[in-house]
Design goal:
It holds the Pfam family MIT. 44% of the residues lie in helices and 16% in strands. With 248 residues, it is α/β, with parallel strands linked by helices.
């Protein structure tokens, strides 16, 4: 029985669609996303297998499942080797006015339960909307499965309205303390780079730092609250892995 005949089943059709997406992602060097699609596609085929009585169809399904499991395992080993060697690099290009890039969507796959400490280097945590961006980032860290205990922020001092910046960051610091998280603040006049590090080895560099969202059209427009719906400025996100993460 051919794969095309298997695809006549709705469940198989959905599975093959997801597995094709996995192959496409792997060919585009988007390994982590490909692994997710492999797992989803394999799970769908396993569900089809459970409901299949035809022995020939079962044999075909087992062969397809086994082949994709082997491919997914090989990909996982290669990604792990790249991480160990410090050679892992993934790049995301956010187009002008693109949506779907909230902090949760961008960072969630890197925030495991092992994350307890985070370093943020961003010269532009100064104005009110930038302070709110940082606050949203902190909220994500508190509510994700990770168990963050310490956040380090290195930013530049706003010489014009530094008082507002300082008071805002102190309020965030106190609020984090109420949730059992310590915020360590440091200012530098020579900072230019933008970088976020997690102590599980992930390093994320965003061209515009945390400030890549556009101003909402109005207070009552979609995207004002849900940042997945907020249009973005064009920027590039580079993601690396280094098991020996250094402090800023």
């Amino acid at each position: 029985m051919s794969r095309s005949s298997l695809a006549q089943d709705p469940g198989s059709t959905a599975a093959f669609t997801v597995l094709k997406r996995a192959l496409d992602l792997e060919s585009e060097s988007r390994g982590p996303q490909a692994l997710v699609c492999y797992q989803e596609g394999i799970d769908l085929l396993l569900q089809v297998l459970k409901g299949t009585k035809d022995e020939t169809k079962k044999r075909n399904l087992r062969k397809i499942i086994s082949d994709h499991m082997d491919r997914a395992e090989h990909l996982k080993k290669r990604l792990d080797q790249e991480k160990e060697a410090g050679k892992y690099h993934k790049q995301i290009k956010i187009e002008e006015n693109a949506t779907g890039f909230s902090y949760e969507s961008l960072f969630q796959e890197y925030l495991s339960e092992t994350v307890t400490e985070v370093w943020i280097e961003d010269p532009y945590i100064r104005h009110t909307h930038q302070l709110y961006n940082f606050l949203r980032f902190c909220e994500m860290l508190v509510k994700r499965p990770c168990k963050v205990k310490t956040i380090h922020l290195l930013t530049s001092l706003d010489e014009g309205t530094g008082k507002d910046q300082h008071s805002g960051l102190e309020e965030i610091k106190q609020s984090l303390r109420n949730h059992g998280v310590s915020l360590e603040l440091e200012y530098s006049s020579s900072i230019h780079d933008r970088e976020i590090r997690f102590n599980n080895g992930w390093i994320i560099k965003i061209g515009r730092g945390l400030d890549y969202f556009k101003k909402p059209q109005s207070r009552f427009s979609l995207g004002y609250c849900d940042f997945d719906l907020r249009p973005c400025h064009e920027t590039t996100v580079d993601i690396f892995h280094n098991k020996h993460t250094k402090k800023i």
